[in-house]
Amino acid sequence: MATHLQREIENLKKRILGLSALVEDNLRRALDSIERRDAALAADAVDHDFEIDLMEVDVEEECLKTLALYQPVAGDLRFIVATIKINTTLERIGDLAVNIAELAILLQKSEMPVVPFDMVGFADKARRMVGHSLDALVRADTELARVVLAADDEVDDLDHEYCGKLRETLEAHPEQMDPIVHLLQLSRFIERIADHATSIAEDVIYMVEGEIPRHSVKRAVAEAMGIGGSTPATRRGSAEPRSS
Question: Distance between CA 170 and CA 106 in Å, rounded?
Fold first, then answer.
């Protein structure tokens, strides 16, 4: 039974890594189509999403079959649970890549607004977060996963900055409303990709260490505030009842 389970787990590793490669490649196509204003490359990214969707369903079915047949425990169970979550997250990144590619097709028809912001660098940070989170998955590298977690706030700040500059540009050039609205959508899609990369990194940490990072942060905050692990009696105080 154990040998069969390990064989299934190795098979799942190959499948989730194959899906990771497809998603990462298609995200690169989509972002490159924005930078190059290349509608043909964008259409290619849209077409590749079908393969990603099929593989996502295949991985989920294999995970559920393995859970039902072998009832894994401990590290094997964590791996399968993390794989199910990462599988869903990868499919969502794939959908966002399609959304970006569709924006590239729309933007190719318009004159791009001049915005004092490094949009390409912003997108590249999110793309690197995805790459690092998937490298962390391949290597079971929690240190690299934590690098991804630390990068998320920077991408959030860049999203806020870019949207602010786009709104300023819209006020100055209302005739460019359509492409500016598309770029606002693009910024939000890039920010969501970074969030999904963070989710994958959290799942890698859970898979390797059995720790859910966001729960450990909440626990640390609670302890710092003096409320971690307290009981109702502790919160009410321990004073002796007054005698009548």
Answer: 18
pLDDT in tens, 12-25: 989 999 999 999 99
Residue 145, domain member (yes or no):
yes
pLDDT single digits (tens) 86-114: 999 999 999 999 999 999 999 988 888 88
| Domain membership of residue 58 as a residue range | 2-215
Burial string for 143-170 (b: 16+ CB within 10 Å, else e) reads ebbbbbbebbeebeebbeebbebbeebb
Residue 233 lies inside a defined structural domain of this protein: no
User: N- to C-terminal Cα distance for the chain?
Assistant: 69
Whether 157 maps to a domain, the answer reads yes
Pairwise CA distance, residues 115 & 165, whole Å:
7
Residue pair 78/206 in contact by the 8 Å Cβ criterion = yes
Per-residue DSSP letters for 158-222?
HHHHHHHHHHHHHHH-GGGHHHHHHHHHHHHHHHHHHHHHHHHHHHHHHHHHS--HHHHHHHHHH
Q: How far apart are CA 18 and CA 172, in angstroms?
A: 46
Q: Which residue has the tokens 């793309």?
A: 127
Distance in angstroms (rounded) separating the CA atoms of residues 236 and 91: 48
Radius of gyration of the chain (CA): 23
Place of tokens 């047949």: 69
Q: Are the CB atoms for 194 and 151 separated by under 8 Å?
A: yes
Identify whether the C-beta of residue 124 lies closer than 8 Å to the C-beta of residue 194.
no
Is the pTM higher than 0.85? The answer reads no
